[in-house]
# Entry
Amino acid sequence: MARLVIDDQIKKSRIQPEIYGHFSEHLGRCIYEGIFVGENSDIPNVNGMRTDVVEALKEIKIPVLRWPGGCFADEYHWKDGIGPKEKRKRMVNTHWGGVVEDNSFGTHEFFELCRQLGCKTYINGNVGSSTVQEMSEWIEYMTFEGVSPMAELRKQNGHEKAWQVDYFGVGNESWGCGGNMRAGYYADLYRRYQTYVHVYDKEHPILKICCGAGAGDAGAEKYEWTKEVLDAAYENTPLQEHGRMDGMSLHFYVFPGGWENKGQAAEFDETTWYQTLYKALFMDELVTKHGAIMDQYDPEKKIGMVVDEWGCWFDCEPGTNPGFLYQQNTVRDALVAGITLNIFNKHSDRVKMANLAQMVNVLQSVLLTEGNKMIKTPTYHVFHMYRHHQGANLLESSLSGVNEVGQGGWKVPEITEACSMDAEGVITVTLNHLSVNEEKELDIVIAGGEVFEVLEANIVTGKMNAHNTFEAPETVKEEKFNGYERRGNGIRVTLPACSVTEFRLRKN
Ligand code: AHR
# Structure
């Protein structure tokens, strides 16, 4: 029997909504087809954005969207994507599938998408193959309200008002696809490029994000990168004062068998189930250890850790373009999402943003599309349940009676959890049950022993590789959960195997 004790008197860090952020790159069918179909498409759209996709995304309360990459960002030249569409440059997308990029989705379209979603904007700039001038002019084009060449150009292109850039990334994976730089060299470039990311509107600072480490499997965590970059580029500039560094990124993907042996998205055995979840749990160690390095420079935690790429990366679906990274999404992905989001909640004193890779049709997507059809993935339903954590305060909580489960040497805890309280005093509890075939009983109580009522309980569960298809779109979905009963002042829950569960509680 496991037991979860929630201490609602100990409110910890605020869970910044941006932890539930997303990422959309010019990669495969993410932007084109998945989000943007153009105004003349037969697929219902508003100003070119698919209505079905935008409506589904609004339901999970997308707080922030990162664009245009990824690796694509360091090859992107923003002037190619403005002005009359028929005059925009057609070019090759060298990173992703060698397909033609016609630049029909550019700066104006990105801001239109974020307007429709009602989310914050996170633009990733090009350090790898661009100049300081190009980056600085982009900022001027997007955010300067007065008289200037770039503001005039924006107006000529039909947008009178400046937009708001909430976050700006100075390079992406600069140690890899973003220029293969060494840490000291990048740190100097960071110092230089960010100088020209001017904040024209002091009431709406642009928060600047420095390129941090990217970790594959254990053993490649790049702790030296974090240390060397901070050593050379950090000065004590608080987040609120939009100084030289407001955030530092971290990338981590789960490749079950390693980069060379990622495995299929929907066909795998029980050992691989545990191997995948074991690797997902590694996010906790990464955040802790990179966070400890950040603490040495920034003990007050003014720089946010920005995990702006995370998720499962499997072999692409057979018969699809290998450069498009299209993969199915199963109950295993739901568990990876639930585990990872709980880790971010628990580290919300340091983690200020995270962006799932990627939003539609690429890697661990929340939505998949095929022509005019769209389906929600198991990961989507987890984000829908977890939306209640956005903006709430993390609560102190402790789990006992949790055993290890696993196969083939991959041992994981049976349950992970996170609890928060929102402004109305409602407690959200999110639970992941990692066992592939056993139920588990769990008592939930409040530390002072007070009685509470269950306002709602929801679950996403199914066989480990259950997933949705365009023919059967609702095989895995969020459902009402009744598997609990009153026990004293608390409740006794029977968690099904392979499940992500949410409870909403209120003290009487
Ligand atoms: O998300 C796919 C790719 O993974 C991104 O373009 C890159 O930043 C990372 O290596």
